[in-house]
Design a protein that fits this description.
By secondary structure, the chain is an alpha/beta fold. It contains ten helices and eight strands. It comes from Aliiruegeria haliotis.
Length: 265
Amino acid sequence: MIDTQAHILDPARFPYPSPCPGYRPAPDEIGTIEMLLQQMDRTGISRAVLVQPSTYGTDNSAILTAMAGAPERFRAVVVARNDPDEITRLARQPGVCGVRLNLTHSRELPAEISALRDMARRIASTGLLVQVQGTPETLPSLLDGLDDVPVLIDHFGRLDVSNPASVAAICRLADAPGNLLKVSGGFRLAPSGDWRNNLSPFEQVMAAFGPERLVWGSDWPFINHDGPTPTYTECLDWGRALLPDERTADATAATLFGWDNDDGG
């Protein structure tokens, strides 16, 4: 499968800002492009999407440099300021296929929600994918009124698998046909830690979206979470156990992230 969620955290080559605009990784939370390629080659994953972590803010140098080293294998989802010129410039850069909006730092709905909606529309108008990390509390308000904008929702919408209301809130997001779901981050979402065996809540949400609106992501290198750190193989096996049709998920990812064109753009 195409891995649609991997991060680059390489403080030796790309030092973390001080202070970090988002999460500051611990010294052992490192994920270089060489380390990622080892994981991919070992598990037979040929292509991956490099997603900008909150650590680097809007400085996308780490993922863009990594992507440039193997443009046939990688695409990039960047973070941008709400600036039309910057978004247009990023859209013209080969291999950049999306912009990520991250709403999970405060877990509260931001005051500038209307500005974020406008930014999402601006991103989509350039041909880039809108990717959103939010929660069952923030996502409905953001996505309301964006029915005409394709949006990829990270990590099952950060639902709480032990809370039926949380699961139902993410299921309702499937009512908008442009919303897609990333089958990722299971190890973050099960308070009991039983994310590999308690598949029912995930399956309920996936059934609401349908197989053609699902993609898989590892979320490597698995930083900033409670509980034991999973392995890449465990995350891959979990995704394969959940996805009703691996080939359909692969085709959806190829379309979303531009591999259908096969030109690095």
